[in-house]
Every structure is written in structure tokens, then in C-alpha cells.
# Entry
Amino acid sequence: MRVLFSAAEIAARVDALAAEIVRKLPADFVMVGVLKGAWVFVADLARALDRAGNRPEIEFMRLASYGLAKESSGSVQLVGDIPAGLGRRPILLVDDIVDTGRSIAYAAARLRERGIGDLWTCALLDKPQRREVKVAIDFVGFTVGDVFVVGYGTDYAEKYRHLPYIGVVE
Ligand code: IMP
Ligand code: MG
# Structure
């Protein structure tokens, strides 16, 4: 395993992201994390937001797209329902990685169908070279090239999610 971003580098970046988010979003936003990949990022970002003076509510939606392969299947499915009763609340949609862009575009579309308030997007990792669907990412942790990563919540065939760092399997 080659470490791409250490636990300490991620922690510093997450704190900086939280400060940026607090500056730009209204105070009463709801974080909506995309499962399963964003579970660690959401947990750390929520606590970083607390340190930055925000008290976000936290919800999740669960998508399936990758299966056990490294390449996206191309079709995204909603397998865990979107929280009800968000009303017109401002939303911060949080995912681990934006690759082709299909997952976050799909998640944003499902949220917008419910008539939510303003929507911002946040991803720990952005792979702009891999983009197939045009989608705006408002807050990005790190930009990476065309590399398949694991750890810090993200997996390869359900392995490595527990790693405290982001690495590349060699
Ligand atoms: P997209 O729909 O192609 O943008 O893919 C986004 C989703 O695929 C992310 O939320 C991740 O869960 C997963 N994914 C994309 N790239 C990687 C990777 O390098 N490692 C692990 N999971 C990835
Ligand atoms: Mg994901």
C-alpha cells in the first residue's frame, strides 16, 4: 500500500474545509452524506464543523453504483432513502470521491426533486480527469489524477474502508 494522504494530512485538510464551509453556508444547513464511502469523511467533517462553530444536522442517503469492480457500472441506484422532511433547508451534500460525476449528480437530482433549499456539494477527493457528467463541486479536499484509491471510508471490493489514510494498492 502506498500512502497518498496520511491521517494527519487529511485531518488538516478537513479542518480547513470546515472553516471554508462555515464562511460560505448559512448556519442552519443539513449535511447529507452519501453511503457507504463518505461515512468516515462525514464523521470527521461534522466534528471539524463543530470546532469551526457550526452545529450541522446529519442525514444520509445510500447509493449503489460500483459493485465489486473498480469501474463505475454507469448506472446509479438509490438503495437507502433520502431523508424526508428537509423542507427548504439548505443542504451540504457530502461524498467521498467524485469520479465520473454520476453518483453526486444523481444524488443532487434526487434531493432537488424533493424541493430542498440551496444545495452545495463537497467531496474529499476530486478526479477531474475522469469526469463524464458535468457537475459543480463547491468544496474539494484534494484533487487527484486517474488513480484508484482506498481507505478513509472508501473501498475496493468492500476492503480497506477502515484504513485511517488514503492509499493506492500496489
Ligand atoms: P462516480 O459516480 O463515477 O463519480 O463515482 C463516485 C463513487 O465511486 C464514489 O462515491 C466512490 O464511492 C466510488 N469511487 C470512485 N473512485 C473511487 C476510488 O478510487 N476508490 C474507491 N471508490 C471510488
Ligand atoms: Mg461513494
